Amino acid sequence: MASTIIDVAKRAGVSIATVSGVLNGSRYVSPELRERVLAAVRELDYTVNQVARSLQARSTRMIGMLVPDISDPFHANVVRIVETALKTAGYTLLLGNLRDRPEEQARYLHILRAQQVDGILIYMVPGCEEELRKLVESWKPVVLMGRAPTTFQADLVATDHVTGTRLAIEHLMSRGHRRIGIIPGPEPQPFSRSRIHGWRQALAGSGLPADDHYISYGDYTIEGGALAASHLLDLREPPTAILAGNFHEVVGVLRVLRQRRIKRPDQVEVMSSHDSEVLDAFDPPVSSVDQPVRELGTNATELLLRRIRQPGRPPEQILLQPRLKIRSFPASPLNIGAAAEA
Amino acid sequence: MASTIIDVAKRAGVSIATVSGVLNGSRYVSPELRERVLAAVRELDYTVNQVARSLQARSTRMIGMLVPDISDPFHANVVRIVETALKTAGYTLLLGNLRDRPEEQARYLHILRAQQVDGILIYMVPGCEEELRKLVESWKPVVLMGRAPTTFQADLVATDHVTGTRLAIEHLMSRGHRRIGIIPGPEPQPFSRSRIHGWRQALAGSGLPADDHYISYGDYTIEGGALAASHLLDLREPPTAILAGNFHEVVGVLRVLRQRRIKRPDQVEVMSSHDSEVLDAFDPPVSSVDQPVRELGTNATELLLRRIRQPGRPPEQILLQPRLKIRSFPASPLNIGAAAEA
DNA sequence: CTGTTAGCGCATTCAC
DNA sequence: GTGAATGCGCTAACAG
After folding, report:
1. What confidence tens digit (pLDDT) does each residue in B202-226 have?
2. Which of residues 317-336 of B touch A (CB under 8 A)?
3. Is B21's pLDDT higher than 50?
4. Which of A50, A134, A251 sits opposite B278 (nearest CB)?
5. pLDDT digits over A53-86, tens only?
6. Interface touch A76/B92, C-beta < 8 Å
7. A336: Cβ–Cβ under 8 A, 6 or more apart, which residues?
């Protein structure tokens, strides 16, 4: 059994109030007593019981964070940033992996509530806003990341996916592509709509038709990306370029291209909606929409801490702008084929 | 303020003992009262306060997990597996990212102890075993992953890195390489020694000299991998093959090769100590030592749950065998150069 | 300056 | 079958 504050008090021959005072610096204690307390702490290898402290303080100093998929490097990086920012503020992170499942999201929100976390950062999975709305409306500090809810208002930090996608498609067009496929995300999701919207905008800007056949939904997994790519490639007039929804989907798309012995990037060029340093090392070159991961993480954390301090303030939405990361092609211009098609 | 069990009791016109009984199924309650309680719970949107429950139960149903780097896909995957396995057993995961820093490890172990987690899974960072040893010796359920401690005994699930490395080097030799560089991990670490040992074993088996110049330490980051590779390539007789310590280091090595316009894999072949599905999609082909991630995660979880149930049982060590994942080269045998060197 | 006491929300003895 | 009372370990208000 771990020793308690009472054990320390007994051993030091003082009251528990004195021990507590020393430990928290919340009360003046004479140097002599203070030393005796610290000695007892050391001898007993005492550590404060945060559970008891949390109960009495009505605050756990813990923040819950929910992400769709921790093995997606994009999410992993956001978590890493947030975790560091939170540490500075004296909070501990309780992480939940939603595995892209709405049920998991409901389950975790329930757990976080029961655990009495002081705040929640969530990269929403579409399909189950109800639980979350209840939480927000009951004054629980919640900051949404990436995806906006449709049924209520809340603090939000997101990337402008319309612009990001538009820029990507425009870039592909500037490289001569005219048939451009897109894997926006799962079907019924407003988030996917933004990307489709950006895709349409770009095409319209060049007077190209926006053929819905070139939209193939994915689920952010390698398999999903592969499947979506297969659909696109099976079209009568397959696209010469594909914009994948995240890094996993890029892997899936490239795998299919390899299996079909389609030359990359000559015959089909691939772009990614998430950047990764991996793309700097391997072939083929894959340009990307570079999400401002660091800003996402730090802004979300700051927003949350601010809301914890002032629960009444009006909700704030921060929209961050992504930038293209263009990866140039090998010295020998293999891309003549695509360019000639323009 | 969230409602408490007292609010529910008042509203249902019963005692708190009855409410508790209904909520936990720990006591017979007449159907009529039971229904009244459940109705009150619903109306108040009541959720049990886990903090209070944990205090009284002396158990939080939380497991702490510490990993060196959450953005390393290998660790991210282990976390994902563990998190799923733990959920089945009714535990929640408290995650800590050590960022490869011993100080962070000490800090987190302290936090986990204070938070009264029921158990700890840790992928140790070298350099600070003291804190951990104290925990293990004070009967706290701890399972170590990946890396074995030197100063004490504990439950452990690890991969056989000696064998893994030996197999990798042997594979490279079978492909004709005679000068094989290795990036084992940070310098003073026993973990790195295993890999160096495997490297030596393989070379000795073929009667090749083991020149220490071909050992270049890394720190598991992209930058570290790039730096280590630069050192190797600056040698008078640079290696024709390099085994990197994890996926990040592979990225760093390949980046350097690209910068130096060294042909991959013709002039220098790269292997990885961690597999990744990414390697199936990109060029150049990179064979790897495939760590049994799933087994690592599930075994560690089972070991921990068993220790929680029987704190007194003798420590158990599970050593898992990695397997090679060979990636074949493009149809046109570009690798003649390397093979000819044999 | 320091000790005593109440209560955070809950589960769990006891009595009835 | 159900209710009242105790204590988990801690902090903070109140005495002295």
Report:
1. 999 999 999 999 999 999 999 999 9
2. none
3. yes
4. A251
5. 999 999 999 999 999 999 999 999 999 999 999 9
6. no
7. none
Residue of B nearest to A82 (CA): B97
User: Which pLDDT tens digit goes with each residue over A248-289?
Assistant: 999 999 999 999 999 888 899 999 999 999 999 999 999 999
Q: pLDDT tens digits, residue range B56-67?
A: 999 999 999 999
Angstrom distance (rounded) from CA A270 to CA A268:
7
Q: Does the CB of A115 fall within 7 Å of any strand C atom?
A: no
pLDDT digits (tens, 9 = 90+) for B279-289: 999 999 999 99
CB neighbour list of residue B68: distance below 8 Å, 6 or more residues apart:
B75, B98, B99, B100, B123, B125, B220
Q: Which fold has domain A5-48?
A: 434 Repressor (Amino-terminal Domain) (1.10.260)
* DSSP E strands, B45-139: 62-67, 92-97, 119-123
Does residue B151 contact residue A85 with C-beta atoms inside 8 Å?
no
> What torsion, rounded to 10 degrees, do the Cα atoms B231, B235, B237, B243 define?
-10
Minimum CA–CA partner of A223 in chain B: B277
A106 in B contact zone (CB under 8 Å): no
| H or E element, residue A320 | strand A317-320
Q: Enumerate the domain spans of chain A.
A: 5-48, 59-160+293-320, 162-291+325-341
In this structure, the dihedral spanned by the alpha carbons of residues A96, A246, B256 and B162, taken in order and rounded to 10 degrees, is: 40
How many whole angstroms separate alpha carbon A229 and alpha carbon A223? 10
| Averaged confidence pLDDT in chain A | 93
Cβ-defined contact of A51 to B115 (cutoff 8 Å): yes
Cβ-Cβ pairs closer than 8 A, A with B, add up to 125
pLDDT of residue B191: 80
Short-list A47, A90, A215, A32, CA closest to B113: A47
- Residues forming beta bridges with residue B215, ordered by sequence position: B182
CB proximity B148–strand C (7 Å threshold): no
pLDDT score recorded for residue A134: 87
The whole-number average pLDDT for the span B257-267 is 90
Q: Please tell us whether the domain made up of A162-291+325-341 is placed in CATH 3.40.50.2300.
A: yes
Per-residue CA distances from B256 to A280, A285, B250, B263 (Å): 10, 16, 10, 11
Chosen for mutation from A71, A79, A107, A254 (greatest number of chain B CBs closer than 10 Å) is: A71
Q: Determine the pLDDT at residue A225.
A: 98
CATH 1.10.240.10 fits B59-160+293-320, yes or no: no
CA pair distance B265, A87, nearest whole angstrom = 43
Are A176 and A156 contacting, i.e. CB atoms less than 8 angstroms apart?
A: no
**What are the distances in angstroms from CA A232 to CA A241, A262, B189?**
10, 13, 49
Q: How far A208 CA lies from chain B's nearest CA (Å)?
A: 31
Do residues A253 and A270 touch, judged by C-beta distance below 8 A? yes
The domains spanning A5-48 and A162-291+325-341 adopt the same CATH topology: no
Token code pair at residue A256: 């299919």
